[in-house]
Amino acid sequence: MRVLVLRLSSIGDLVCITPVLRALYMQRGAEIYLVVKRQFAELFQYNPYVKEVIGFEGRLYPLLRLLKRTSWDYVLDLHNVLRTRLITLALRLSGCVRYRILRTDKRSVRRRVYALLHRRFPPIPHIVSRHFEAVRLLGVEWDGGGLDLFIPAEAFRICARVPRRYVVVAPWGTHPCKSLPFSTVVGLIRQLLQRTDVVLTGGRKEERFAQRICEEVSSDRWGCRHRLVNLVGATSLLELGALIARANHVYTVDTSVMHMACALGRSLTIFWGCTVPQLGMPPFLDWLDRKVRVWSVFRNLPCQPCHTHGARVCPYQDLACLRFSEEEMQPFVREMHLKLQEAVR
Q: Lower CB count within 10 Å: N or C terminus of the chain?
């Protein structure tokens, strides 16, 4: 059975489709061809359940010419946006699809209403559950496992640049209202440096902010006993995965690092801002694995959530949902550290 899977972006959403890919391969023996944006293709380079990754570079015509050369038994649209709907329509009209086109129900309207009315409706089912609803007609069911992320040995060379024991701090999301403010990041790292070494990660657009943070929390100025390693903009996706896989703990927001940490079985602390877990994208863990712990830092303000994916500007201009003082963070950082020490014992 040859299956074409469409999920163009983004990193966290791509990691969340891996249970479906695994189930299709293990339960139906499917040959899976996955279409993703070119910059994210390396996430599936070592995935044994995917036969081929097709990189999408933004132009539909060359992609359609390539896809029309093959006859597909099923097309599985796990993105369900205008662009993927155009792709599936073109394939249907060209006669390339033998059986059916299946789509994920994104619950878009319900999610928008949930954000507009600030949690006055029941929670949205997890995106992984919604993906499995799409393949129910194929007789594919969830196998009880978690997310997958396969890291090659060469990616772990990046770990030579960091201390032996450390925590990862990834405070930035794609949208400004999902990113921790500068003062919150500085306060968090100061508290962590009193207890452990810290690796700061992020994309290239955050390099300037990361440099300011490093200057603010420099060991000479504040007397911190441990080391802060700045790797913002210096890692590939798989190298970032290698850093997460070796970390003792991960501090992040509602972003791709959260899903990567779940796939790699790392305990993590999540700061929730303009989005909330009830919108259908909380951490997805293997229910059989009780060692992974997840802590959520959530102010539970009346205005939360204010967006389904992440707003560019806070409606109240203060980003109060993600603004924590150093004194506020000290108790839960201490508590997390003690619980992690207990888990190690």
A: C
Question: In whole angstroms, what is the distance from residue 91 CA to residue 17 CA?
Answer: 22
Q: Would you call 61 exposed, middle or buried from its count of C-beta atoms within 10 A (0-12, 13-18, 19+)?
A: exposed
**CATH numbers and ranges of domains, the chain:** 2-138 (3.40.50.2000), 153-344 (3.40.50.2000)
Rg, C-alpha atoms of the chain: 21
Q: Give the C-alpha separation, 160 to 170, whole Å.
A: 19
Give the pTM: 0.93
Q: Which two tokens stand for residue 91?
A: 């394939």
52-56 vs 31-37, strand pairing mode: parallel
- Write out pLDDT tens, residues 162-204: 999 999 999 999 888 999 999 999 999 989 998 899 999 999 9
Contact (Cβ atoms closer than 8 angstroms) between residue 38 and residue 63: no
Least confident segment among 190-199, 218-227, 281-290, 335-344: 218-227
- The C-alpha atoms of residue 88 and residue 69 are separated, in whole angstroms, by 14
Q: In what order do the strands lie in the sheet with 97-103?
A: 52-56, 31-37, 2-6, 72-77, 97-103
Q: State both tokens at 50.
A: 């995917």
Q: Long-range CB contacts (< 8 A, 24+ apart) of 161-164?
A: 161/229, 161/231, 162/197, 162/199, 162/229, 162/231, 162/243, 162/246, 163/197, 163/226, 163/227, 163/229
**For residue 345, what pLDDT band results from cuts at 50, 70 and 90?**
low
Q: Residue 184: CB partners within 8 Å, gap ≥ 6?
A: 171, 271, 322, 323, 324, 329
69 has a pLDDT exceeding 90 = yes
**Quick one: pLDDT at residue 342?**
66
